[in-house]
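Inputs:
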Amino acid sequence: MPGERYDPQEIEPRWQQLWADERTWEVSNVDDGRPKSYVLEMLPYPSGEPHIGHLKVYSVGDAIAHFRRRNGHRVLHPLGYDAFGLPAENHAIRTGRHPRQSTEESIAEFQRQFRRWGISIDWSREFGTHEPSYYRWTQWLFLRLFEAGLAYRDQAAVNWCPKDQTVLANEQVIDGRCERCGTAVEKRDLEQWFFKITDYADRLLDDLDTIDWPQHVVTMQRNWIGRSEGARVTFHCDALDTDYEVFTTRPDTLFGATFFVMAPEHPDVLRLSDSSEVTEYVRRSQTESAEDRGAEDKEKTGVALGATVANPVNGEQIPMFVADYVLMEYGTGAVMAVPAHDTRDFAFAEKHGLEIRRVVEGGHELPYTGDGPLVNSQRFDGKDNREALAEIIAWLGEDGRGEPAVNYRLRDWLLSRQRYWGCPIPVVHCPTDGIVAVPDDQLPVELPDVEDYAPKGRSPLAAAEDWVNTTCPKCGGPARRETDTMDTFVDSSWYFLRYTDALNDQAPWGRDVVDEWMAVDQYIGGVEHAILHLMYARFFVKALADLDLLSAQEPFDALFTQGMVTRDGAKMSKSKGNVVSPRDLVESHGADTARCYILYVGHPAEGGDWSDDGIEGIHRFLQRLYRAAEGMQAGSVEPEGEPSDLVRKAHWAIDKVTRDLGERFATHTSIAAVIELVNDLYRQRDQVDASHVRFAVATAASLIFPFAPHLGSELYERLTGDRVWETPWPVADPALLQSETFELIVQVNGKLIDRVAAPTDVERDEQERLARASTKLAARVDGGEIVKTIVVPGRLVNFVVQ
RNA sequence: GCGGAUGUGGUGGAACUGGUAGACACGCGGCGUUCAGGUCGCCGUGAGCUAAUCACUCGUGGAGGUUCGAAUCCUCUCAUCCGCACCA
C-alpha cells in the first residue's frame, strides 16, 4: 500500500516550533489546586555533544512527565548544565581553547539537540552552573555552611592526583586511581577545605528508610557510610606518658590483644622511635601509591617501635609496631592486634613471630573470627563472647578505660580543588583576621579570565595577581583571596533547588517556592552517581534544612536508575567504534523513532542492546500507525453501536499502558501494547464499523504520545482537532476489559491437555462441568481415577489423576 | 574475601500476587502486490518425532526439594555483571 509517507523531518520541527512559541511546558509557581509533581533527570555535563545515554534518560523522564501532566499533575520538568569541572578544563587544555568557550559551545549543541528531540522542558528555568548568576548562590550557600561550622579548613593526608594536579575527595578515588583520568593517586599532607558530612552520617543512614530508591543504591550508600559499633579503648604508653585510644568492634577479644600497631602517618610514630629502620619504613609507605599499599594479598610488613603499651584489661605490656596495614584515616590510626581472631593481625603475628593467644573457642584452627565462649579472659571465661562484649565495655567504663563508640567509614567531603574551571571559594586570607568570609553583598566572587589555566600543583588563580590581592572585609588591610575552587559536585548538590526559583536575584530561592516544589518526586539518572552525587545532595538538603532555609529532609523521594545502552553486548565507546550518535539517528529516522526504540529494547532500568535492525521495526510501527490515519478528518472518535473486539483491544491497551508506565516504568511493554493495538487495527479494520477504527487510531495516538510526542500530537489533532497534551489520559472501561468468553484451561496433573470456551461469568461448578466434558480428558484419565479437582475460577481446572 | 543483581527460542526481550512459557519486535520462511529487487499487506516460525499447522515427548544455566501445579518459592551449585575491599 503506497499512500502518504510518514515524514518525521516535516512533522517533528513543526510541533517543536509550536511548543516553543506557545511556551507549552512552562509551569507557574502558583498553586492552582492540582497536585504538584517534580520530575527531574540528572543534569548533563556539557562536553562535546549529547550521547545515547542522554537520549535515554530524557526519553524516560519525558514519558513520565507527559504521563503525569495528562493525569492532572502540575509538572515541573526543568533542565540545566553541570558546566564547571575537570573534563571541560582538560579538554580545553588539550585543544588550547578556553574552557568557557568550549563549554558554552557544547551547551549550545545540547540545547539544539534537546529541542530537536522534543523533550518537554520548562526552558524558562534553564541555567548553567558556571554562570555568575548561579554560582553567586553556590558561594552564598558555602558561606552559610561556613558560618555554621559545616565548612572548615584543615590539614590532612589527602588524595592527590599527579596528572590532574589537584586533590580529590575519597569518593573520587576508585581502586586507588583518579576517577577522571585513571592515574594512581598519591597521599599528600595538605591544608584543604572540607564539608562536615560526617556530622550527618547517622541521618544519612537512617533516612534511607524514608525514600523510594532502588535497593542496590540504598545498599551502596549504607556500605559507603559504613557504620560500625564497638568501643573506644585506652592503652597507656609509659615511654611518652600518653594514652592511645583505639576503636574496636571486638572488645570481647581484648584479652587476646598481644601487640599494638600504628599507621605510618601517625604523628607519634617518629616520636616513639627515630631509628633509621622506622624512619625509612615511614618514608617508604608514604611514597607508595594508594593502590600498591592496598593490594589484596600484600605481605604484612612493619617495624617494631621498641616501646610498649599497657593492655587495659590485664595491665600486660604489649609491644608496639608501625605497619602500613593500619590506616590513618579510619578510626584513630592505631589498633590493638588480636592475632587469634583477626586474619590481618594473624598474618602479621606469624610473619614477625608474635604471640597468638586464643580467647574465643570455636573453629578448627586460628584465626577464628566467629563466635563462642571466652577463654583466657579471667572473670569472663565461659561467657558467650557476644554477651561478654557489652559487659567488658561497661567494666572498662567504670574507671574510664573505655566506652561504647560508633565509627564510620564515611569521611568529610574534601571540596577544594587546585584548578581553574570551578566556582571560587568566597573567602580571603588576612594576615590579621585569618580566614574572612566575603560579605554577601560582594558576591559573586567572579572567576577571572586568565591566560594560563594549566594545572601547576597550585591553583592557576594564584597567578592572577590583580584578582588575588584584595582588602580584608573586616580590617580593610591588604589580604589575599582564596585561590582554590570548589569541586563540581558542590554545584550539582543544590541545582534542583534553584530550578524552583531560577530567576530569583535576591536569594537562591524563595522559601515558599522551594517548599512548594520540593522534594523531587521522580529523579532519573545513571547508577554511576549512586554514591557521589546522591550522597552529597542528600547532605546539602539536610544541612540547609538545619539552617532553616528549606523544609525538605531529602532531595529525591523516588529514584529511577536507567541501565546502560550497549551495542553487541559491549559498552559504546569511541575506541571500540561502536558509538551510535543521537544526531545521526534523529536525522535518519526522526526523534520519535529514536526515543521509542530506546524505550522498547528492554525495561529502561536494565541495559538494552542496540541493534540497527531493531530500530527499523519501531520505525515501521510508527509508519503503520501514521498510515492508519490516512484520509481521516477531524470529528468524533467515539465508537458507535456494540463494542467490537477492536474497541475492546483499545481499552485493553489503555489499561495496559496506564499500569505498565504509571506503576513500574515499563516503557517496553507499554509500547508493545500499542503495537498490538495497531496490528489488530490493520487486521480488523475491514470488518468493523468505521467509528471503531477511528477510536482505535485516536487511542493509539493518545497512548503513544508520551513516547513519540510529535506523532501522537499530529495524529490526535488530525482526528479530533484537539491537542493531545491538553487531553486527559484515557481511562479504560472495566466492562470492556473482559470479553464474554474466555479460554478455559483443562489440566491433568498440572499439564495442559485442552482449552475450551467458557462464559466469563461462569459459576464454579459449571466451570468444572465444562472442563470435565472435554473429550481429551477421557482419553487422559483412561483407566485411572480422578482423585482431586482444583478449580481456579475464570482460569483453569486441574484434575489430579492416579 | 564481603555485599548485590542477572541467567528464558537464532537475537532483544514478555509472563501482575505460583496457574496456557516464549507477548511484542528483530531475524528467517511462505503467499500476494511487482518484470525483478525493495517497500507494503497477510500467514508461519522453541526443540524433538512426524506427510501433517493430528497426536505425543522435552523445554526457562545445572542438581535436588516444596506443591494438584514452579521461569516464579526453598536448598545447593555453575556462569556473567556490578559495588566495596588491609575499615580494626
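The radius of gyration of chain A is 34 Å. Flag for discussion at group meeting.
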